[in-house]
Write a structure and sequence with these properties.
single chain, about 210 residues, mainly alpha, about 75% helix
Length: about 210
Amino acid sequence: MSGLVLVIEIAVMWGSRGMISEFTRAQRRYLQGDFEAARTILEAVYAGGRAGVQALTLLGNTYRQLGRLDESEAVLYEAVNKAPDHHFPQYGFGRTLLAKGRYAEAVDAIQQALSDGAPPIVQVDLAEAYYRMGEVDAARTILQTATSDEPARALLISYLCYRLQTGPPPDSALIAAGLPFWQASAQRFAHTTYGQALAEDLAALERLQSTA
């Protein structure tokens, strides 16, 4: 019996090792911005019934980056159900709901992610969701302490504070550094109310940049 158990354990470890290798390759492609390559790897893992929570979450996030929001929502919902107390899938789920323009649901998911241990920077996403749904007092409260070294997030913080009359307009250098990310997002989600709202923000930012 002990020999059989050892063989099974080796088989499980070997399978896990393969899955981790596939996940790592997909993660690298994702971080490189090659979302189609990441999708191909992760869909094979999913089709083979080997997708754990991490792989499901990364696949859902990849679908979102490709603008395939219905598929993103479905896969991330599956990941959340597999690990309801883990912030990783919950945050991805919230981001997809935000991109679909379902702001109240996004608030709930992102708040849950924070309760489950998501890093404080996720509060920026929560502030954005509140802002998009018109809950300006809640957005202001969060933004009072929000900071980021990442240009895109730093620009969002500065711009929202400006729009909510709690800070000066973002300077031209910050706009130039952070704008490409939001331009890509507006294009990716142009078919949603969120993408349309982003397009309006981009026009406002471009006006600010031209007068700075």
